[in-house]
Amino acid sequence: MAQSRGETRARILRTAADLFQRQGYGATGLTQVLTESGAPKGSLYFHFPQGKEQLAAEAMAQAGAEMGERMAAALAGAAGPADAITALGALLAQGLENSDYRDGCPVATVALEEAGDAGPIHDACQGTYELWLLGLTERLRGWGMAEQEARELADLAMSSLQGALLLARVRRDSTVVHSVARRIGAIAAQEAGQK
Amino acid sequence: MAQSRGETRARILRTAADLFQRQGYGATGLTQVLTESGAPKGSLYFHFPQGKEQLAAEAMAQAGAEMGERMAAALAGAAGPADAITALGALLAQGLENSDYRDGCPVATVALEEAGDAGPIHDACQGTYELWLLGLTERLRGWGMAEQEARELADLAMSSLQGALLLARVRRDSTVVHSVARRIGAIAAQEAGQK
DNA sequence: ACCTCTCTAGACCGGTCGGTTTAGTGTTCG
DNA sequence: CGAACACTAAACCGACCGGTCTAGAGAGGT
Asked: In angstroms, rounded to a whole number, what is the distance separating the alpha carbons of residues B89 and B106?
């Protein structure tokens, strides 16, 4: 056998995550995933018996977890709340710039498409956001912020960054991500200080 | 003739705007638009000779303009920067709640799908955001804010609201929209005051 | 050696996709 | 009255959709 155990599965998953992120669920065909990953159709349905839905749910969960780790690393190196949020902004903005404004949030496009109907894809997207928010909330708490305050601030930061990412992709200009991160970071520092 | 001049065209456009908003561009078939609007296929290609792309571009532009008017009305009734931004939040949150979390931003889903490639749809989405931002910026300037300050604050408010709308749709809970609007409103008031 | 189990390979399916074409219907205006 | 026009109506097209199925290649165990 040419590939080692599970290698094809991983390659399909990665390709699918990239395509879903950039084009959305409905606009991405399985044929495209297969062509770009170099896998035959039989392999796809061997590894993902529930078809496109399972593939998308797993792809979103994986992409979300990977981005979560990158976020955690950025947060770990931050000196305080303001630094933490500008670091998140820088991380996301860099992803945009490095991909010619194709890679924004790994789950946002699919999340919006699937927001209407329940199912594993929606669950995976929702879980991803809650994972990220949990990580940020805990980091803020580590700087002495109260539980509810940290949670609300994390919501505010995540919302702002997500929206800025959307605006930046549409404009093909990442300036807004940096400026929004800077402002929200300043608010976070202020709230942490006056506590 | 059963319908008056252009009535079928308007009905197709409205149905298309609703479906694109909720499901995205790729996931919405022309057949569905036709079925729900009650129009035959021939009429669609008579009124929109460039097909699906033209339909989507016009639908986004119309939906964006309508929302822009609703936003302008909300802004017109506001007493100051804080009031203005909470009013926008209330408007958007109400749309979510009234539609069982289906109607968020009328263009966001399509905008993300089409962010990668240039074309009339992307242009319509970008134009919509710039229209909204222009309206908010001018309203802020009316309260004595400097040009650049108003522009940056409008970017911040729009980003935050868009992101909150995304989060709220995924969670099926509009709380985050209200809380984000309140906080950003407070910042806006503070900036306007200390000027 | 051989069997078994995992995984690859791709032909094939019915259905739906966006799009085209042709015929016809009602209105308007000369 | 009848020709020109605006629009409706739906049959039809090739391409592609997601999904199924069967055949076989390769590695590991005994």
From this structure: 15
pLDDT exceeds cutoff 60 at A178: yes
Protein residue closest to C23, using CA and C1': B42
Tell me which residue in A26, A102, A176 faces B159 most closely, judged by beta carbons: A176
Is A12 among the domain residues? no
- Cβ neighbours for B130, distance < 8 A, ≥ 6 positions apart: none
pLDDT at A15 over 70: yes
Which of B95, B23, B87, B98 lies closest to B59, judged by CA?
B23
- Cβ-based contacts under 8 A for chains A and B: 153
For residue A133, pLDDT over 70 is answered with yes
Q: How many domains does chain A have?
A: 1
Tell me, yes or no, whether A182 lies in a domain.
yes
A148 touches strand D (CB under 7 A): no
A126: CATH = 1.10.357.10
Check if A14 contacts B (Cβ < 8 Å): no
Q: Is the pLDDT reported for residue B86 higher than 80?
A: yes
| Alpha-carbon span A195 to A141, nearest angstrom | 12
Contact A56, A12 (CB under 8 A): no
Taking contacts as CB-CB distances below 8 angstroms, the residues of chain B near A164 are: 155, 159, 163
Cα(B185)–Cα(B78) distance, integer angstroms: 12
Nearest C-alpha neighbor of A36 from the set A58, A63, A16: A16
* pLDDT for position B193: 80
Range of the domain at B147: 51-193
What is the SS3 assignment for B26? coil
CB of A25 within 8 Å of a chain B CB? The answer is yes
Candidates B26, B156, B165; nearest CB to A183: B156
Q: Is residue B176 part of a domain?
A: yes
- The pLDDT tens digits of the residues spanning B25-37 come to 999 999 999 999 9
Among candidate residues B13, B9, B10, B128, the one with its CA nearest the CA of residue B65: B128
Residue A30 lies in a domain: no
Q: Reply yes or no on whether the pLDDT at B117 is more than 90.
A: no
Q: Answer yes or no: is pLDDT of A193 > 50.
A: yes
